[in-house]
Amino acid sequence: LILRYSTATTEEIRKLTPLFNLLNKCSTEHVQDAKTKEKWVSLVAIKLVHAPGASEPLAGLAAMRVAAGGAATAISGTDRYITIRPDPASDGISKHFCSLAELLETQTTRTDGDITATKVFSAKKLTAITTTAQSGAELEMCCVAGNGNDCGTGGSGTHLWIKGHKLFTEATQTKCQVQEIPIGTRTPVSLHTINTVHADSLKNAEESLHKLQSQPLSKTTECTSHSMANDSRLRRDVWTILLKQSPKSSFSIQENDQITTAIKAAYGNTPEEYDTGPKKKIEETKGTTNHDDTSAKLEIKGISDEKKLKAMLAVARTRSAAAKKRRPNTSHIIFPTKIQNQHPAKIKIKMNATKRINAHGKEQKKLLSAKLKVEKMK
After folding, report:
1. Tell me: the pLDDT tens digits for 58-77?
2. Which residues of the chain have pLDDT under 50?
3. Cα distance between residue 226 and residue 277, in whole Å
4. Nearest to 187 by CA among 153, 154, 164, 208
5. Domain of life, per the record (predicted)?
6. For residue 253, what are the contacts with CB-CB under 8 A and spacing of at least 6?
7. How far is the C-alpha of 188 from the C-alpha of 75, rounded, in Å?
């Protein structure tokens, strides 16, 4: 649809449509695979920061998205898992460590920008750090102001990071989004918990997360007209769109040869011809994200912003709907075979048909045929 309202010609669009359908199918399968993994990684990450009996040990962290395909390591930044031991602080709260929720008496929440933070109070009424535009990085947590190898807040500007973490992706200009830490700067991290139950829970969750993140996404076949030449959907599309034949689900040997020849003719005989031909054409096709025809057009390959792509699709849909309203509807008119086969100069057709045929009733067909009066010209 975007291509239809772009700089591509009608013939180019017709040729590229089967390929677009194929690419869309491959993309959908890969995205679903990635989202499935992302879902499970997120669930385990939530377990990691919400150990049984704990309440918001790292406020807001559970809401952060985990990168589906991102490489992750154990929080320690090494092959070993995190060092966990009961918190030695006499009052059960250590300002510099993540103390989990059994000690917490009350919690209140407030919203600062896009972040809903949790203020945590212990029996000693520990006041959480306040997030301000100036301090930027400090999200209210029970784990604050760590030093050395301790878990703490840090970073600058609009980011929050947890030392040693490599589980989350950075979103530029998003306040307090967790930021990836370069491998070379990771340091071991010790999380201090209240008792061995919490320690074991966190350790198990960390091991599960590390194992899950180390499993690569299932590799899909590269989606091109050559690697996917036997894809049933592509072959059906080529048959109906490129060869302009009636739809069918199975083909004879001769028909399959026709389809194969058509695929090579449209998309290149070699992968190199595909890359420099239709693939290049798709990437360099320009569309607009604005309803104004005079607005600048953008190359599809240069669009990495999902919002721009959605805007481009919205423009294409609007224009498509407007074009359908302007186009006269002639689908209700029937031209009998006998008339179609006669020379137009020898016939005169008077048609009073104004309603679409009801496919379920033969009587309406007869009634419509009676209204078609044909007089041979003398």
Report:
1. 322 322 223 222 222 223 23
2. 42, 44-195, 197-198, 330-360, 367-368, 371, 373-378
3. 13
4. 164
5. Eukaryota
6. none
7. 7
User: What secondary structure does DSSP assign to 126-155, as a single string?
Assistant: PPPPPP-TTT-S----SS-S--TTB--EE-
Residue 281 backbone dihedrals phi, psi, to 5 degrees: -65, -45
- Residue 250, phi then psi, degrees to nearest 5: -135, 155
Q: How many CA atoms lie within 13 A of 84 on its CB side?
A: 25
For residue 63, the model assigns a pLDDT of 29
Both structure tokens of 369: 């045929």
Q: Which residue has the tokens 């990495």?
A: 304
Q: What is the pLDDT of residue 74?
A: 29
- Predicted confidence (pLDDT) per residue in 18-36, tens digit: 777 777 677 666 666 655 6
Query: What ranges in the chain are assigned the alpha helix state H?
Result: 10-49, 196-213, 232-237, 253-267, 271-276, 278-284, 306-326, 337-340, 362-370
Structure tokens at 260: 């194969």
